[in-house]
Amino acid sequence: MPVKWQSGRSCAVVGAPSRSGAPQSVFPSVSKSRPMATFRRIPQGVLVLLGYAFSLLVVLSLTLPLVVEEAVEAPISPLGLLWMLLLAYLIFTITLTLQRKQSAWGLQVGLASLSLPLIVLLLLWAGLPGAAAGLLIAGLLFFSLRRPSVRAWFSEP
Asked: In this structure, are residues 107 and 96 in contact, taking their beta carbons and an 8 Å threshold?
């Protein structure tokens, strides 16, 4: 049973068969390949930022057993709060970035600024080569953010 919209277009009810017997889509104008076409158009700078966000997510996930061990002793710990805040921030930032929201650009700047303490940590753990690697990562992230194509990517209100 088709439903008429105000614009005069009709759309099928979910699961209602078409004349050929196959179920129709609720949104006939949306093709199934559109998400892949959008993914192919992501600027390289956004891919760098997403790669950094996903790598941080992996590192946080791998160190989560330390937080769980602390939770056995004390239900609320500073490390646990920090990890949960970072996980929420990362997931929210990745979600808004993939949706091309304007507010995601500011969150990506905040995410890139998390690379600055990484320089100090790598200096303490690996010496000057580690600090150089941290500087390279931070420079790459901030250079990626400054590209006009990256700023134009975040266009959705």
From this structure: yes
What is the tens place of the pLDDT at every residue in 53-99? 999 999 999 999 999 898 888 888 898 999 999 999 999 999 999 99
The DSSP H or E segment spanning 77 is: none
d(CA 110, CA 102): 14
CA distances from 32 to 9, 25, 27, 36 (A): 20, 10, 10, 9
Kindly state the tokens that stand for 113: 């600024």
Give the residues across from 11 on adjacent strands. 3
Residue 153 makes CB contacts below 8 A (sequence gap 6+) with: 42, 43, 46, 100
Which neighbouring-strand residues pair with 17? 23
Model confidence pLDDT, tens digit, residues 116-150: 999 999 999 999 999 999 999 999 999 999 999 99
